[in-house]
Each structure stands twice: as C-alpha cells, then as structure tokens.
Amino acid sequence: MQSVGRIIGQQGRRGRKRILRGGLTLAAASLALAACGSSSTSSTSSSSSSSKGPIVVGTSLSLTGDFASNGIAFQRGYNAWVSYVNSHGGLLGHKVSLKILNDTSSPSQVATNYQDLITTDHVPLIVGPFSSLLTVPAAKIASRYGYAMVEGAGGAPSVFSYGLKNVFDVSYPIKIAVVPTAKWIASLPKSERPTTAAYVTSNNIFAQPQIAPAQAVLQKAGVRTVYNQVFQSETTDFTPLADAIVASHAQVVVLSSTSVSKIIDFVKVFTANHFYPKVLIGTNGVGEPTFVNAVGKSAANGIIEPNGWYPGYKNALSAAFIKEYLKLYGGSAGSITASSAEAFGTGEVLAQAVQATHSFNQAKILKYLHSGAVFQTDQGPVKFNSKGENVDGIVQTFQWQNGGTKLVQILPKSSQSVAPLFPRPAAG
C-alpha cells in the first residue's frame, strides 16, 4: 500500500455532496491522462520541482470541530487520489506527497494553515478545504501568493462573489442543487402535481442559496409556498419548526442544512406526527447510511437528495476511485461518501492541469484552468467559467426506494436511472 499524507495539528504551528457525459470511452481516456500525470510517497515538509524528488501538495482539512466528519471523508478522498497517482507514475515523474494541516473547522485557522503551507513549507501545489465557509478565507490567502486553488466543496455563490481568479470548484454550483427535482415536480400532470410547499433552511452560506432557485421553479408551476423559514445554525431544538411544517400540510417539503443530524431531527418529528408529504427533499447527508440508521428504513423510503456522486455511478474514473479507496480503507462501496469523491475529483483536475501544462508553475496552471478546457473526474465533466464555477457540473438526484433499503438515481433520466417513487409512501 502506498503511504499517504501525514496530518499536522495545531501544536508546533503558529496559532494553529452525478451523470457521465461523453461515454465511458472518454472517461477511460481521461483516466489514462490522470494516471500518467501523477504519483505519491511519504510526506515531507519541503519539495522541489527541479529534481525528481517528491512534490508536496498542501491542504487544510477539518479533522476536528463542526465539519470533522466531512473533513475526514475529504482526507480519505485526497489520500485515495495520492495513492492512485503514485501507482501510475506520479506528477511529471515526481512522487506526490500530501501534507494536511488541521483547521479545526475554523475560518481563521484555515487562513493560517494556507499561509504556513505557502510561505513556510513552500509547497508547490495546494488543494482546497472542506466547506464554502472555509474556502473563502483559504482562497484569499492563496490568491495573495498567486496560487491556484482547485477544490470540491466550496460551491456556495458567496465563494465566487469576491472576484477571486484562483478558485475552481470541481462540483456543480450548489445554487442549482434542488432545481432538477423542482423541474420534475413542475412537469407532473396538473392533476398529480403537488400544490403547496414548505421550505426550511439554516442560515449557512451553503444551505440557504439552494432554496430560492427551486422555489421560483415551483411557484411558476403553481406550487404555492405555505411555509418558509430560516433558522440559525446554532439552533438545537427543531420541534417548533417541524411542528409548523406539519401544521402547514405542505405536499412538498425541502430541508436544507449542512448537518444531516438536523435533517434527521425534522424527519423524526414528521414520522411521529404521521406526516408524509408527497415529496420530501433533504439537501445534505440523506443518502448516507447514517441517515437511514437514525430515522429507520421505512421512514427514509421515498426521501430525495441531490448530490454529485454515488457508488453506483457508471464512470471509469469513479470505478478507479472506489477501487483505490477500498484498497486503503476496506469496507464496501456503499460506505463511501460523496465528500470523498469530491476530494478525489479535485486531485484529478489538478493532475490534468499539471500534465497539460507540463509544469508546476502557478501562472501556467491558472491560465490553463481558465482556458475553457474540459476535465474528466469521478463526478463527470468539469469546465470552469470565469468565476471558477463548474458549468458542466451535473446534479444527480437520488431517492431511497425498496422500503428504504436501496438508494437509486432518479434524475437525470437515463439508462442508469429509475422512475421516482411518487407520492412518497407512509412509513409502515
């Protein structure tokens, strides 16, 4: 097994959620490109691109704090990428080493970490942290020193509102996440289409932007808003909010939060009150085993989640990711989260940019990322607009079916998808 990145915590430092386009042939070709461009070894605190020594890729991840579960998933995804590229020749003949600093889910600490990685450790390449909240301060530091920051979990509109020219998100823009489901609802015959909807979201920069675009689609289709509430991220008692949604008798409910535990709390209240809206959408973590274990299979049945990846996605690069992940961590494909896939895809894009430019020069890499080139990843195609958003990003929409025992793709409609379960059945 290839060695993977080491983690450095605070001590000793200063203050320390998709469909294949172009077919499997294109993905296989891209798989070869990504492979011939990359490699990995045990990490070191310095690197040089002038010799065949290891190239250190630096990152800051939330290994503790509020984002720890996703941060650890990102760590695993990055480690899988490093192991994969190292087994295929490395980046321009250099083995790749990953250096991870723990940001404790703190915006100030993530800035310090990237400052250290760039100015103290002099890493030649960096990749992004987890969450939009942390991507902004990280990208600002990277921009100051002319570094490209490819990332996979910073898709909130606010990330792209600062005019930064160095941030590139390989996942779809988060603002469009619920739109495909809203369009499907709007396409239903009027006699079947739900007539009312309720929306609740945390005030998080990731969660809140997902509501308005979907709400606009539904309202245009005659689906009336009967409840719309934003709650503070610090909220711990969701019973009053959930009770209000139950009282609204909404036929469509959208729950948007960065925390799956909060969505779980809502679903438990709904189930206790025998409230089963025709469509129930959760924007984060609903597709994971943790969610089903918490609410029960029967209650999970019919619940929908938008995401960029799932283990059943038919994509050659996705298959390579799963193989590498399981080699490192064991378990089953069904236990792998989309966060790990996002991290692996981030590494793929960086590797393809390095290979295309045959360089570790940041100016050349930035120019190529802005060139309109199309990259292939385990989540599907990636093409950046001038802001760094992935305009080719595909929202894949999933639903628990078969009594909550099977997560299936329902949108976009394709040979891989199955018909949505509608209306959502009551729990047995």
UniProtKB/TrEMBL annotation:
Domain Leucine-binding protein span(s) in chain numbering: 54-404
Signal keyword on record: yes
Signal peptide: 1-34
InterPro entries per UniProt: BCAA_transport (IPR051010), Leu-bd (IPR028081), Peripla_BP_I (IPR028082)
Entries under CDD domains matching the protein: PBP1_ABC_ligand_binding-like
Domain of life of the native organism: Bacteria
Keywords: Signal
Family, similarity comment: Belongs to the leucine-binding protein family.
Protein name (Swiss-Prot/TrEMBL): Leucine-binding protein domain-containing protein
Organism lineage string: Bacteria, Bacillati, Actinomycetota, Acidimicrobiia, Acidimicrobiales
